[in-house]
Specification:
- 2 copies of one chain form a homodimer.
- The first copy, chain A, folds into 2 domains: 48 residues, Arc Repressor Mutant, subunit A, CATH 1.10.10.60; 140 residues, Tetracycline Repressor, domain 2.
- Chain A is mainly alpha-helical and 229 residues long.
- In chain A, helix 1 crosses helix 4, helix 4 runs antiparallel to helix 5 and helix 7 runs parallel beside helix 8.
- The first copy, chain A, is built from 11 helices and no strands.
- Chains A and B meet through helix 1, helix 6, helix 9, helix 10 and helix 11 of A and helix 1, helix 6, helix 9, helix 10 and helix 11 of B.
- The structure holds a DNA duplex (30 and 30 nucleotides).
DNA sequence: ACAAATTTAGACACTCTTGTCTAATTCGTC
DNA sequence: GACGAATTAGACAAGAGTGTCTAAATTTGT
């Protein structure tokens, strides 16, 4: 097992490139068709490689599936932690800053390609691969939720919010902010950008009505005009 | 096409019973294995009928699938409307009554067998059968959300709540009340009874902090003890 | 330009599944 | 008890998909 230091040149570049391309296409096909319905020939065609190459790289349909889930989990986690790093610790405008955070989280981690695919695979095949998705649960929600909760705890400690249980607050924040996207998520679709913003805005306003310390001055404006049209 | 008035005696009872049994087992197998992975022989075995009987009744794997989704949608809708009928219009204890409503909705419509199956089928096969699930969307969310929103509007009109947009409030209510069950739902599991109660309690308290008119006297107590343990 | 490694296309055996068909059996009803 | 309808078990053809194998073509590093 050689170790490749420079990430771009030493190991056969085409080789890794093909591996990536395979995993990518496999993710798409597994999502569309499910594990049982996914067709290796189709994955090969979509990746632009021959079927044999897939077997050379991954050996087996099931091993390929595992590789896909691991890859997605890793990339999604990276995205989530990168976004958590943008959480407003010392907000100027708490409402606007939280809305921004919520929109970033949605656009970069939940509605993007990887997030959509991972979510669907968990929903679809989660019960069939308990150990694989137990691993996801530890690496994913098990690490991201506490991180988000810690940020809310910090806001509370800084006097910006009045919350008792940061874990509950974090989950409720996400629940509120995605409240209007549930049906879209359920059907596997991606909400439009304005829908994400709308849901985040409404959600954060309600969140701050419940947990905000002082009522932020710029609150109501002309909301509700779009909602019931 | 004969019309059968008495629901129990006229038409060959064993016939209808078998049809029900088939659809029931098919729902379970389609959920576990997905459409492509579902095996007619397995469905037959689980329903306690021969494969041929399934073809006699439904003709075709795809037609069977459609029958399953229609059946589930119908039963779930009935359950939801029955539960909406128990919405507290003139609450004595608003917090307790809303918690009760939320728990009923979860236990009778979302976490029960039919709800779980329908949710999974929508998530799994929704993209493959646009017209079928468009129908579900109209019959299901398209009718239930307005009904729930109307009840919240009534509470607001009665002076129990201070909400601007009943539709938004209804969606946020559900989002809050299910905030702590998301991971479980995602993996296709059913939360325990105490988890449902816990999530509903926390959700309703936050909801009332945001939209309640007067702070209900019995509010905080010893919450938070379980949450972070 | 040469040699090694990788990729490719295609054929192949094997398994699994769907949907049909037939003959025997069971069930409900008169 | 007898009749007709429904159900059953099993065989069957047809098709699709997985994973293997081989020989040719291509890419890569030296």
């Amino acid at each position: 097992m050689k170790l490749h230091v420079s990430p771009d040149t030493f190991p056969p570049r085409g080789h890794e490139a093909k591996r990536l391309s395979i995993v990518d296409s496999a993710a798409a096909v597994f999502c569309r068709e499910g594990f049982a319905g996914a067709n290796i020939d189709l994955i090969a065609a979509e990746a632009g490689v021959s079927r044999q190459t897939i077997y050379n790289h991954h050996g087996d349909k099931e091993k390929l599936f595992v590789a896909v889930v691991r890859d997605l989990t890793e990339r999604c986690n990276a995205g989530i932690f990168a976004t958590i790093a943008t959480f407003p610790d010392q907000p100027k405008d708490l409402e606007a800053d939280l809305i921004g955070f919520a929109v970033r989280l949605n656009q970069n981690c939940i509605c993007n390609r990887d997030g959509k695919f991972l979510r669907k695979l968990i929903q679809t095949e989660g019960e069939r691969y308990p150990e694989l998705f137990a691993e996801w649960r530890e690496q994913g929600p098990g690490r991201t939720w506490p991180a988000i909760a810690a940020r809310f705890a910090r806001l509370a400690y800084g006097g910006y919010l009045a919350i008792e249980d940061p874990d509950v607050a974090a989950r409720q924040f996400l629940g509120l902010v995605n409240a209007e996207l549930q049906t879209t998520f359920m059907l596997g679709g991606s909400p439009r950008e304005d829908e994400v913003l709308q849901s985040a805005t409404n959600g954060v306003r309600t969140f701050l009505r419940a947990f905000g310390k002082r009522r932020s001055a710029t609150s109501v404006e002309k909301q509700g005009a779009l909602a019931s049209a």
